Structure formats: structure tokens, C-alpha cells
Amino acid sequence: MRLLWELLVLHSVLLCLADDNTLHGPVFLQEPDSLIFPLGSEEKKVKLSCEVKGNPRPTIGWKLNGSSIDVGMDYRYSLLEGDLLINNPNKSQDAGMYQCVATNPFGTIVSREAQLQFAYLENFKTRTRSTVSVRQGQGMVLLCGPPPHSGELTYAWIFNEYPSFVHQDSRRFVSQETGNLYIAKVETSDVGNYTCVVTNTVTNSKVLGPPTPLVLRNDGVMGEYEPKIEVQFPETVPSAKGTTVKLECFALGNPVPTISWRRADGKQLPRKARRHRSSGLLEIPNFQQEDAGLYECVAENVRGKNVARGQLTFYAQPSWTQQISDVHAAIEERVSWECRASGRPKPSYRWLKDGEPLQPQGRLQLEQGSLTIPNVSLSDAGMYQCVAENRHGVIFASAELSVIAIGPDFSKTLLKKLTLVKVGGEVIIECKPKASPRPTYSWKKGKDILRENERITVLDDGSLRIINVTKSDAGSYTCVATNHFGTASSTGSLVVKDPTRVMVSPFSMDVTVGESIVLPCQVSHDHSLDIVFTWSFNGHLIDFEKDGDHFERVGGQDSAGDLMIRSIQLKHAGKYVCMVQTSVDKLSAAADLIVRGPPGPPEAVTIEEVTESTAQLSWRPGADNHSPITMYVVQARTPFSVGWQAVSTVPEIIDGRTFTATVVGLNPWVEYEFRVVAANLIGIGEPSSPSEKRRTEEALPEVTPANVSGGGGSKSELVITWERRCLRSCRTGVALATWWPSGPWARSAGCRQWWPRRTPRATCSATRACRPSRPTRSRWASTTTRGKAPSAPSPSSTRQRKPTRAPTTVLARSISASDVEVSWAPPWENQHKGRIQGYEVRCWRHDEKEENAKRIRTVGNQTSTKVSNLRGNALYHLAVRAYNTAGTGPSSAAVNVTTKKPPPSQPPGNIVWNSSDSKIILNWDQVKALDNESEVRGYKVLYRWNRESSTSVIETNKTSVELSLPFDEDYIIEIKPFSDGGDGSSSEQIRIPKISNAYARGSGSSTSSACTLSALSTIMISLTARSSL
């Protein structure tokens, strides 16, 4: 037993060396395993392995059945790098439980137990066996009676002569538990000699027992009888976790019984269970807790049945769920370990220190796998092991307890050389020397002892705290630490700086979409300190690299960190915070930014009531985006219109406080859907979602057939043609015709006057037999189930007049860098003269002359159109006027619209793909728009099968997509950015070929190693992506 001072010196020396040599106690790298040695083997040596690490290198010894082995006293034992070699092993001397023991100056540990067994198989003692005489039809058992042995055996029986072995079936069974041969019902073919063959699976040796003759008795044949179970498993079968459990069951009987298996608790047999040898053997591989229970073997024939039962119980060797780990503790500290293991039955615990059992006495507290030492001393240092065991196994867990005993040492934890603090601030100067036990602390300022007061405090860990710092606190400070083993000190300086102050704070502003502003942030500070400005927006730091299109830090001085926001959008509204930080302080100033923009889309557009030519609408206002809504415009769409068209309403101009309107001038019996667009002083907002579709009521026709003319036909025929009008919007329209001869020959023309004729709705001609080459007049009218419209004579016609009124409510909005959408409302029918055949839209750039304007014409009642091929980021003027065959009418007042900035010209680059299992991931570099280009809003991934032309599109606002695809198709992929100005430049096409394995990768620069996209139903993209087809 070392004296306390010797331990102190040893541990102090080892601790001082620890920084350079990582000293530690023994740790097992390999522990010995149990083994079975076959006697008579040509290999005359047994090797038990043990590998250990430690610094210093541990010495290794061995125990047999708890007693140390003296290798030097027995020539048969030798050590080879820790492994134990046994030459010419002897069954009586060497069989038993072995443990490896490892020791160095930090302590001792012992390994798990490894059992050494010897396998052998002796010969049968008897030479002959008596004859067995049975009746035909009787059951019979031949005993094997294996000789003395060790190791697992297998059994077989020879019938008469080798190699004729007994074949097992429903009538014959060889038990691998006893070796006995069972014949359920003896037949004449069974007469002969039977020899038991025993094989040792470890030594591979075989022995044959003496033959047993089997003869038939001549006193009659055995009658039928119920089954008698001769082979059955025990009432309790302990079964280890993960092993294969084998249950045997066989019965004698006449007729031959059938064997079946079941669970007595009503549960199904495990699906993994297998039946062998005509159900005489049931195997359950990988036995688990749920497989335990009461099992039954049922033997049955026509004479009855018999049942054998046995309980399969589950057990498991201990297995660690919580192990112990090394602890480095100072003297008088509290140390606690806890280990936990699973197993069935529940394991018990014991503790070892340096290989010897620990008892709960004195300062040691042991309870259910926990070990506690309240006040550690040097004598407690060493190697500790927790041992968990049940009747099926034992496991060991090891840990080292190092007890530190040194005087204070600042060599690795010097006081901070220079500590900065602002006037009025708070500072903590840390003092953390290495020491055990914990030292006491005192402080000096300069050469004077520092006294604690309401501003100056020494904390429990030795650190010095000063609050409400003044300039007089500046100077040098020394921490002095003392314990039983020495005293040490360390010195640092405290520098006091003037605080930073905000001179110009950002202020809240109210701006309009598209404007640019500067939020000021200017400070005064100590110029000897580095200063850092950062800005946050709604709680998130602004990334000036990523968001440089809109945000820029300006100022040019180290005391200014102003923020410029360019081309402000609605999304930029919120709270902006300027944060200023130096090495001694940090402060912030905030401002709110209100952004006014065009209104959001109205909501819940509802059709309240419909007549033949009107519809009553209501809606809810959308967001006004901080600028009151000034007006609403109603648009309609029918199956016959080209897109959405503005319609006339009552009131004609819908102000921003009105949420209902009546649409007038609708066609009867037409299916309509409506939407509402809001506008304010900033501009025109997005349209609402469409309303439900509703059909107007049917009505009397209001117009006559157009272009009625006659002539042609065969001899004595008159053919009259016309254009159908209104019939499209009439539910049951037909044409009603009357005609009469005209001229001096009218009474002798052979034609009846006012001859009426009805034609079907879709018919546009009629034929009447008349005298040839005579002038004729006719009159035509449209009819419905509600009545008849005014008639139209033929062939006379009237001259049209030019439209006299201009279209109203002209609105225009930019939808991309090259496209503008314009809509208008037609003049009221009772306010203009001249039939309108369509509208003419004129569009000219601000720097162009109006007479050079681009002209676009619409046909019929279309009241909206798109103007394309315009220049991006340019101001345009638009005006609309009606026209017919007589000419154009007056022009509306011109409206202004500015096209959006052009889309990004740079295509996505560095496209890389890779696959893992069924997933394919595409990545590419972010596209940055130029100053004169629209901001990138996202990316479109276009893909198609290599053999198809149709392309599908996925939209995402990230620079990657993750896809789950079948690997049996080639795909072509392109990626391009999109913005408010439209789609940008597309990347080069990437071909992703079929992938035969689950892992592949490639890049856009190689057309031979691209990844494949697949069917729409299997596309899986990241949460921020959305797909459109």
C-alpha cells in the first residue's frame, strides 16, 4: 500500500506529463472468447486472445477459475503479446473459466470470463444388444444410448448395412435430443438390424453402436389404437434471444398419427417458424420476446388424439444500455457513476476497483448499479469496473478515476492581457487557474490590495466584476490564487473607453412602390476602436451580397452606416434596425417603413342575381397596401370571348367604397364568369379570382338576320341566304321568312304572296320554287320561344355611320418587360351612333410621335387585348377608339404605363446533379440580375422525355430541386430564371440518361452524365417549390 504522499507525488508527476503523453489506465481492445478444444486434434495448442492499450503500457496476466496463473511455474503456459498459449492442453487441468488481467500505474482491470471446454466422443461400451420383437402394426422405440462425450452430437441410424440409412418420414423419426429411433407403426419391411451412428460436430468423429435386431412376432397383428406421444419437449424450455429454438414431438399409433403445432394462447405460430420431418420438428429462428408462450403438439388419428405442452420462456444475457466513463476529479469533489444493462432476468450489479470487489462501507455508496464517492481523496484513484450479470451471462464496463492534486497554475489560463470596457459599463475579468483542491482568491490593483464594495465584487469562481465603470477604474489588475499546495498569480490591464452614441437615427418613412430611399445611421465613437454596422429587416440580418439588388450600405465614413433601399417593393415594408458594435459596446436604432402600392386582388366575387341582360355582383375589398382604393372595374369572360373584357356597370364608375355593382348589356342565354380589378392612386392591382359561372336568362331576339341576299338556284328556284345573328345567345332560335314577287308581273309570277317558311336554328338558307328570272322581295326575322324579332327585307340595305362616342374606363398594366395588357368599357348603346365592329388600340413610346403609334385592332365585342414586342423599362401611352366599315370614332384619353425591367440575361451556370437510391438532386449557381434587369423571383426547370416533344415545367425559388424518379427513361432538362419582366435566358440542354444503379452524379457540362427526371406523379420538390404544367 503506497503512502498518501507517495500517491500525491505520483499523481502530480503524471498530471504534469499528461499534456504531452496522454497518460491513462488500461483499456481492453480485445477480450478472450469462450472456445471448445477438440481432444485428439492435430493442433496441440490453445490460444486465448487479449489485447490492451494504456500509457504506460500495461502488463498482462491471467486467471483460471478466479486464481492467478503463474506462467513461469508451468512450462505449458506462455504469453505472446498478451495472448495466453496453452501447450498440450489437458481436459482435467485446463478446463474452466479464464480472465485476462491488465495493470499499469493507474490501476487494474479484468476481462469478461471465457470458458475453455474440451470436446470428445468415446466408444460404445456394449458389444451386442438384445433382439426386439414386436407385432406388425405396433409402435416401437430403439434406444441409442450415446457413449460419454462433450460437445454437440448428431444422430442417424443404419438399416442392415452401410450406407443404407433410415429415411425419416411421418412413420419414422430420429430424435436429435436422445438419438432414439421411433417407428410409429411397424411394417414387415422394417424387419432387420439397426445401428445407431453418433457424430461429434466439434471433433467430426463418429462411433457406431452395436446392432439391434428387429423381428415380428407371430401371435397376430396389432389392432388400431390412439396416438401415444413418445417424443415431447420439456414443460419449460428456456430460450435465448436470437437463437434457433427446436421442439421435437413424435407419437406411436395405428393408423400412423399426424402431427400438428399450435400456440395454446390462441396466437398464430410465428411466420418464421419452420416444420421439418413430417412436422416432427418445429424450428423458430431468431427467437424474440414475442415468440415466448405455451406451445402444443397435437398427435391425431382416427382412434383419437393426444396433446403435449411446453412453455417457451425468453431469456437474454446482459447488454449495456448505459456505461461508465473516465472521470477527472479534484480532491474533495463528489464523484458519481451509474451503469445500466438490459437482460432477462433483470441483471444484478457489483463493482470492482483494480480488479478487486468493492463493498459499501465508509465513504463508498453502492446501490443498484450506482457508485458514489462524496469526497474524493487520492487513495480513491484507480480503475473501476461495473459488472452486470444474470444466470445467462456476465459483462464488464471499465472507467478510470483520476484525482488531481496540484497547486494553482496560470500557465495555460493567464489573465487576459488587455480588457476593454466603456464608461458606465460592466466588466468581468476572469481568473481560472488550474488547481486542485479549489483555491481561494484575492485581487490587487497595481500594488494595492483591492477591497470589495458595492461596485467591485469577487465572484465564486474567482473572477472580478466591476459595474458602473469609471475612468479611474483603468489600470493593472492581479489575481492571486492559493491552496494547500502553493500560490500563483497573473496580471492583466483594464482600459476604459468613451461609449458609442447614435447621432443620426433612422426615421420612419412612408414611400411608394418603385421609389428609392436612404435610412441614415450615424454615430460618434472612440476612433481607436473598430466599428461594425449591420442592418436587420423584420428580425433577420440583411445579406448585402444576396440582396444587393435592393439593399446597399452607403456612407463612406467609419462613423456612418446608412442603408439605401432601391426600387422598393411591397415586401420591403416593415421594421429596420441599425446595429452598431465596437469591442466595448453595442447599440441599435430602429425605424418603420410603410410601402404604398397598387391594391391587392378583391375577394369573394359573388353573382347575386342574373336576368337576361344584367348580373348583380358583390365582393369584398382586398388589401389597399396603404393607399385607399379609388375605383373598381368589372371584367367578364364567356365561351365566345377572347380573354377577359371590361363590361359596363351601374354605377358606371365604381368608387373604392362600393362593393356591389350591376353589370349591364349582357347577351341572353350566355354563360358568364366575372372578376373585379381594384385601382388606387399608385396603380392597378391584380384581378380577383373568377366568380362562379352563371347563364343569363333567355330573351326575345333584338336583331335581324344580317346580309340577307337572294339569287342562284336551279331553274324555277329562288335561293335566299343570310348570316345568323343573336342565335348564339338565343336558346331556341329559328328563322321565319316571308317573300313576295315585286314588279309589274307580281300577280302573274306563279308565287304565292307572303309565303311563310320556318328554318331550323343552324340553317342559313332557304329555297322557294318561282318563275325564273323575276325580281323578288323577301323579309326575314329571328324567333325564339319568347317571340319574334323585327324583320329584315332583302335585298335592300342601309348605309352605316361612324361611331360617335369613345370607349370609357381605359386601364393598362404591364405584365412583363415586353407586354402590356389594356382593357376598356364600350360606349353605352344609347349614347352613340353607328354600329361598332371592333376597337383599335394605339400604343406609342414616350419619345415617339403619336402618329407613328403601333395599332392593334380587335373584332366584335372584345374589350381587352395584349400589346406585345415592347421595349423593357420604357414609358408608353395608349388610347382606344371604336371602328366600323364607315371609319373610326373618337379616341379615348391616353393612359400611361411603364413596362417592367427586362428579364435576367445570364443563364444559370454550374448545373450539377447526383442521385442516391431513388432521389435525384439538381443544384445550380444563383443568377444575379443586372441593375437594368428585373430581380430574379425564381427558376423554371423544364424537362421532357427524350423521345417526346411536350415539355413540363417546375417552378422553385431555390437553386436546387430534389426529385424522386424512376431510372428507366432518358430526360432533357433546361433551367432558366424568371422575373416580373418575364423568363430569362435558358441554360444549355442537359441530357440525363437511364441510370442502372442507385447512385450516380453528373454536371451540366457533360451531356453523357446528366440525371433523369420522370413522370409528373413522381416528382418531389423542396417545400418552397411549386409546379405548373
TrEMBL record:
Chief location category: membrane
Span of domain Fibronectin type-III: 601-699, 806-902, 903-998
Subcellular location per the Swiss-Prot or TrEMBL entry: Cell membrane
Superkingdom of origin organism:
Eukaryota
Membrane-related topology note: Lipid-anchor; GPI-anchor
Q: Where is the composition biased (Polar residues)?
A: 888-899
- Is the keyword Lipoprotein in the record? yes
Signal peptide boundaries: 1-18
Chain segments carrying region Disordered = 687-713, 764-809, 888-910
Segments forming domain Ig-like: 26-117, 122-209, 227-308, 318-402, 408-495, 499-588
Biological process, per Gene Ontology:
axon guidance; brain development
Name any one GO molecular function.
cell-cell adhesion mediator activity
**Keyword annotations:** Cell adhesion, Cell membrane, Disulfide bond, Glycoprotein, GPI-anchor, Immunoglobulin domain, Lipoprotein, Membrane, Repeat, Signal
Output a single Gene Ontology CC term carried by this record. side of membrane
Where are the annotated coiled coils located?
A: none
The record ties this protein, via InterPro entries, to:
CNTN4_Ig6 (IPR033007), FN3_dom (IPR003961), FN3_sf (IPR036116), Ig-like_dom (IPR007110), Ig-like_dom_sf (IPR036179), Ig-like_fold (IPR013783), Ig_I-set (IPR013098), Ig_sub (IPR003599)
Q: Which family does it belong to?
A: Belongs to the immunoglobulin superfamily. Contactin family.
User: What quaternary arrangement does the UniProt entry report?
Assistant: Interacts with PTPRG.
UniProt-recorded name of the protein? Contactin 4
Species of origin reads Taeniopygia guttata
Q: Which gene encodes it?
A: CNTN4
